[in-house]
TrEMBL record:
Belongs to the FPP/GGPP synthase family. Gene3D superfamilies: Farnesyl Diphosphate Synthase. GO terms for biological process: isoprenoid biosynthetic process. Its cofactor is Mg(2+). InterPro entries: Isoprenoid_synthase_dom_sf (IPR008949), Polyprenyl_synt (IPR000092), Polyprenyl_synt_CS (IPR033749), Prenyl_diphosphate_synthase (IPR053378). This is Geranylgeranyl pyrophosphate synthase, chloroplastic. Pfam families: polyprenyl_synt. It comes from Nicotiana tabacum.
Length: 363
């Protein structure tokens, strides 16, 4: 599904109901049609009146869902445009021209901008605003772009297509592609340190440390290395696979959310709740990615489909099948949203909607 469709949970209120440690969620004010109950009109009880779902209520519910979807779409467009403008101005064409062109080619190639949106939304959730979070939001997108450039190289995944375009090394060569990724990584930290305004210096230092940890040898790089050495290995189990994805994919999504929370002034308890939320949606993102890799075409994905199968990589569908993978994705989404139950639900609405987008995306 595209960002402009199907997210109809904007503004809904969710409640976590403990049940042996597992979260269950119900959206306030909606009773499925198949649960409608007809009562006698003679002496109707308060229960019968409250349980009856009228045609007007159904109509109002439908209108409300459409309104919520439109509001989320507006939010996405607004934030994506803001992020794109900030990224455009962050890397200008100057000498050496080739390296800056290469950086811009991948950084401005499109994409969903999920990580920057998560950073901004978490900052706004705890009382901050977009301007405070924007430098960090750009930084996580720079690092994400770096990881894609390097991941596509012949020595890694050897891919020719990214976001519907030739990969960076196909245009600029492997040598420049490596250096473009390196430059974006360095620029990310410079951008946070020099462009973040209106935030106490100790928060900026904490953000820099958090970001470095989530992408280094204990984070993204760790997941990438274990992924590489696991290719062709037949006895990989779920715990091993979870390690790969929690580090390779979830770590930067976690960093995106946590950076925004820190910059927005969240206390330690709020940061940890948002960290758990981000860890769940990070793993969710990869589970869905694994499913899409075997169920969608290259044209639909904007990148090469089926490459994990060709490389004999371990994936969730390979280990537990498509249906169980989808069930696991649903559980992760529910668990993620459980972490937001204690926050202002109106402010949490963008994060709830983004979690649902990650769960039900189609590319």
């Amino acid at each position: 599904m595209s960002l402009s469709t199907a997210i109809t949970t904007w503004g809904n209120t969710y409640f976590a109901l403990g049940n042996n440690g597992r979260s269950r969620f119900y959206s306030h004010g909606f009773l499925p049609t198949h649960l409608k109950i007809k009562f006698s009109t003679n002496n109707p009880s308060p229960l019968s009146v409250s349980a009856l779902l009228t045609t007007k209520q159904q109509t109002d519910e439908s209108k409300n869902k459409k309104k919520q979807a439109m509001e989320f779409n507006d939010y996405v467009l607004e934030k994506a445009n803001s992020v794109n403008r900030a990224l455009e101005s962050s890397v200008l064409i100057k000498e050496p021209v080739k390296i800056h062109e290469s950086m811009r080619y991948s950084l401005l190639a499109g994409g969903k901008r999920i990580r920057p949106m998560l950073c901004i939304a978490s900052c706004e959730l705890v009382g901050g605003d977009e301007s405070i979070a924007m430098p960090a939001a750009c930084a996580v997108e720079m690092i994400h772009t770096m990881s894609l450039i390097h991941d596509d190289l012949p020595c890694m995944d050897n891919d020719d297509l990214r976001r519907g375009k030739p990969t960076n090394h196909k245009i600029y060569g492997e040598d420049v592609a490596v250096l473009a990724g390196d430059a974006l990584l360095a620029l990310a930290f410079e951008h946070i340190a020099t462009r973040t305004k209106g935030v106490p210096s100790h928060r900026i230092v904490r953000v820099v440390g958090e970001l470095a940890k989530c992408i280094g040898a204990e984070g993204l790089v760790a997941g990438q290395v274990v992924d590489i050495i696991s290719e062709g290995v037949s006895d990989v189990d779920l715990k091993h696979l979870e390690f790969i994805h929690l580090h390779k994919t979830a770590a930067l999504l976690e960093g995106s959310v946590v950076l925004g929370a820190i910059l927005g002034g969240a206390d330690d308890e709020e940061v940890e709740k948002l960290r758990k939320f981000a860890r769940c949606i990070g793993l969710l993102f990869q589970v869905v990615d694994d499913i899409l890799d075997v169920t969608k075409s290259s044209q639909q994905l904007g990148k090469t489909a089926g490459k994990d199968l060709v490389a004999d990589k371990v994936t969730y569908p390979k280990l537990i099948g498509i249906d169980k993978s989808r069930e696991f994705a649903e559980e992760l989404n529910k668990e993620a949203q459980a972490q937001l139950a204690g926050f202002d639900q109106e402010k949490a609405a963008p994060l709830i909607a983004l979690a649902n987008y990650i769960a039900y995306r189609e590319n």
